[in-house]
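Aim 2 progress update. The chain analyzed this quarter is reproduced below.
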Amino acid sequence: MRSEPYQVLEQGKAGRLPEELVVFTHLGGEDGESARAGDMLIPFAFEEVLCRDVGAGRVPPALHLWRHPGGVALGLRDSRLPYAAAAMQELEQEGLRTAVRHSGGAAVPLDEGVVNVSLLLPKPAGKLDFHDDFRLLASLIAEAAASAGYPQAAALIRAEEIAGSYCPGDFDLSIGGRKFCGIAQRRQSSAYFVHGFVNVDGSGLARGERIRRFYEQASGGDASLDYPRVRPETIAALGELGGPASAAAFVSGLRQAIAGRGCRLLPAELLQQTAGYSLRYSDPQVLEAARVLRERYAR
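Predicted structure tokens:
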């Protein structure tokens, strides 16, 4: 098992930020779109459209920050478990929205304590090494904790697979063996995005139990099936690990970390004023992208 400390993530080989990023935020129903955000696929569809526009040169590289009030985003393999439909229906009856996402990985819970961070970048010429961009986002998340006023916690962050966590991967971010963030990527023909689900506040144990219970139901208890064996105690939130304990503090730290690398952050509203580009959750092309994703990845 590989372990990369925060210092290595910051100083080692990694992707580079562009000179500027346009920031799109959906952290609390901006632009009156909170009701639309209840659809689990809308944020993913928004990024699908935005990524295409980045690749076509219609918009500069972008940063998307968003939250969802409550749901579970599944991986494609999760949706193929024998009783996945029934398990998803039970989550829906509990008030948790469900959807199958198109980026890599397995099931993750989303709620107001989870900040989703996506970098949307044009594909460079030549071979694309996704590990570099995983390292880039991992280092930015660690630097965000430091910039938010928690340098001691940031210094303890490691990137390594955490056995027993939900959506395990090489770039699980953890402190003391407890995961607070997972990273995935989605590629298109001319652009791509790298995405982190960051547990900032709330109970990691409760989130882990929610996903453990989902797999127990979706698998029907069949131990021969391939799915993550979640141990809830391996999950935590940054606030439980000595880091920033609110979405506002984390996002502020992230903005400082990005600016500290010489990257200008431009509000999406400025892009609309100067170039006439606007994209909202409610736009027809976003709704159509959500419909296509729903059909393509339907359980």
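The chain has ten helices and twelve strands. The chain has a mean pLDDT of 90. These observations will guide the mutagenesis experiments scheduled for the next reporting period.
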